[in-house]
C-alpha cells in the first residue's frame, strides 16, 4: 500500500457514500463495495444465486462490453488514490479495471451522471485475484463528487476505497455555527501519540459511535505519560461549545482530558488553554460551553490513555475565512461537471 491509504476513505458508507447504479449485480449486491469492514468470506454458503460474497459480483458477459458501478462519494474531495480490492475473488475476479471521476453540483440522478464529462483517474490496469490493488490517482488537485468503477469485462470486486482530502462546500459553512472538528467539514487528525486499536480520525466522523470500535482507542500506557491527538480544524475559528463523548467506553475511558488551542498562522503565538485538565466519566457525552481565542488547530490530551468516541468543537469561522473557503472551492471545482 502507498501512503495515501492513511487518508479518509471518501466513499465509505459510514461517511455517506453510496453505489447509486450499476450495470449488473446478478451474484452479489453493488452496495457491498462500500462496506466499512474488511471483506469477509464463509465457504460453502450457497444461496439461490450461488456462493455468497461480501462484495460486488456480476454475471458472465457473453456479448462484449464491460460492467461498471457508479458511486456518489460521501464527502467531496481531492482524490489521492484508489484501492480496488478483489479479496476472496480467486477464480472470478476481473482481469482489468479503471476508475473515472466527475464533479456534480446538487443531487444529480444516475441518468444525469452517465451523461457527465468524466476524467480518468486510474487508467485500465491489470488486476489479480484476492489482492488489494492501490493506484495513485491522476488529477489530485481537483475536487470530485462521484467516481465510476469499470471492471473489464466482468467478475467480482470486494471493496472500492477512494482515499483523499475532504474539501467542504462553503455553502454549508459560511454564516453558520459549525463543528470545526468534523471530518465532513474538512478537519483532520494530523498527529497522535498512539493509534493501537483504532484511528483517531474516527472521533471526527458524523453521527454517534455504535460501538467502542468506532471511536479512537489507545493501548494501555505504562510510562507515566499521557496520550494526545492534534486536530487541524476545518478552518480558523472561535470555539463556543466542546463535546467529548465516551459513549460505549465503559471500562477504558480516560480519567481526564484537556484541550489546547494553536494558531498556525502565527508561529510565534503561544498555545492557549481552551479547557484545563477536566475529569471524564465512562459512557457519557460531556458538553462544555466556552469561548476560545481564534485557533487553527486543537490538541486533545487524554490522561493517561483510553478511548474517545466523538469530539465535537462547535463554533464560528474567523473573519475572512469564509472568503478564503469560497475562493478555494471555486479554484478546485473547475473541471468536469454533470
Secondary structure: elements and pairs:
Elements: E1 18-22, E2 46-47, E3 50-51, E4 56-57, E5 67-85, E6 96-102, H1 110-114, E7 119-126, E8 132-136, E9 143-152, E10 156-157, E11 159-166, E12 178-179, E13 188-192, E14 216-217, E15 227-245, E16 256-262, E17 272-279, E18 285-289, E19 295-303, E20 307-308, E21 310-317, H2 321-332
Antiparallel strand pairs: 1-5, 2-3, 4-10, 5-8, 5-9, 5-11, 6-7, 6-9, 12-21, 13-15, 14-20, 15-18, 15-19, 15-21, 16-17, 16-19
Keywords: Hydrolase, Purine metabolism
Domain Allantoicase: 16-166, 186-316
GO molecular function: allantoicase activity
Question: What would your notes on this structure say?
Answer:
This protein has 338 residues and is mainly β. It has 2 domains: 3-166, Sandwich (Jelly Rolls); 171-317, Galactose-binding domain-like (Jelly Rolls). 5% of the residues lie in helices and 41% in strands. The chain is built from 2 helices and 21 strands. It has helices spanning 110-114, 321-332; strands spanning 18-22, 46-47, 50-51, 56-57, 67-85, 96-102, 119-126, 132-136, 143-152, 156-157, 159-166, 178-179, 188-192, 216-217, 227-245, 256-262, 272-279, 285-289, 295-303, 307-308, 310-317. The strands form 5 sheets. Strands 12, 13, 15, 16, 17, 18, 19 and 21 form an 8-stranded antiparallel β-sheet that branches. Strands 1, 5, 6, 7, 8, 9 and 11 form a 7-stranded antiparallel β-sheet that branches. Strand 2 and strand 3 (50-51) form a beta hairpin. The two termini are 32 Å apart. The relative contact order is 0.16. The model has no long low-confidence stretch (mean pLDDT 94).
Amino acid at each position: 500500500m502507498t501512503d495515501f491509504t492513511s487518508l479518509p476513505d471518501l466513499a465509505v458508507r459510514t461517511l455517506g457514500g453510496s453505489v447509486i447504479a450499476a450495470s449488473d449485480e446478478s451474484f452479489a449486491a453493488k452496495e457491498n463495495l462500500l462496506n466499512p469492514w474488511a471483506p469477509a468470506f464463509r465457504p460453502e454458503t450457497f444461496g439461490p444465486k450461488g456462493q455468497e460474497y461480501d462484495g460486488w459480483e456480476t454475471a458472465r458477459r457473453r456479448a462484449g462490453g464491460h460492467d461498471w458501478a457508479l458511486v456518489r462519494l460521501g464527502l467531496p474531495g481531492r482524490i489521492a488514490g484508489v484501492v480496488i480490492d478483489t479479496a476472496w475473488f480467486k477464480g472470478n475476479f476481473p482481469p482489468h479495471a479503471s476508475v473515472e471521476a466527475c464533479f456534480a453540483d446538487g443531487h444529480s440522478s444516475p441518468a444525469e451522471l452517465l451523461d457527465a464529462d468524466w476524467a480518468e483517474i486510474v487508467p485500465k490496469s491489470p488486476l489479480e485475484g484476492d489482492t488489494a490493488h492501490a493506484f495513485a490517482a491522476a488529477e489530485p488537485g481537483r475536487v470530485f463528487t462521484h467516481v465510476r468503477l469499470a471492471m473489464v469485462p466482468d467478475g467480482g470486486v470486494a471493496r472500492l476505497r477512494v482515499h483523499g482530502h475532504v474539501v467542504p462546500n462553503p455553502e454549508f459553512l459560511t454564516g453558520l455555527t459549525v463543528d470545526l472538528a468534523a471530518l465532513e467539514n474538512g478537519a483532520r487528525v494530523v498527529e497522535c501519540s498512539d493509534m493501537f486499536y483504532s484511528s483517531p480520525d474516527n472521533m471526527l466522523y458524523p453521527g454517534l459511535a455504535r460501538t467502542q470500535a468506532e471511536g479512537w482507542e489507545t493501548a494501555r500506557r505504562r510510562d507515566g505519560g499521557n496520550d494526545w491527538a492534534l486536530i487541524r480544524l476545518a478552518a480558523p475559528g472561535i470555539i463556543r461549545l466542546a463535546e467529548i463523548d465516551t459513549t460505549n467506553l465503559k471500562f477504558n475511558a480516560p480519567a481526564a482530558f484537556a484541550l489546547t488551542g494553536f494558531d498556525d498562522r502565527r508561529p510565534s503565538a503561544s498555545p492557549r488553554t481552551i479547557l484545563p485538565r477536566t475529569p471524564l466519566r465512562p459512557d457519557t457525552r460531556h458538553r462544555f460551553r466556552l469561548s476560545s481565542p481564534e485557533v487553527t488547530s486543537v490538541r486533545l490530551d487524554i490522561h493517561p490513555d483510553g478511548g474517545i468516541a466523538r469530539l465535537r468543537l462547535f463554533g464560528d469561522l474567523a473573519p475572512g475565512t469564509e472568503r478564503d473557503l469560497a475562493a478555494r472551492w471555486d479554484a478546485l471545482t473547475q473541471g468536469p461537471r454533470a
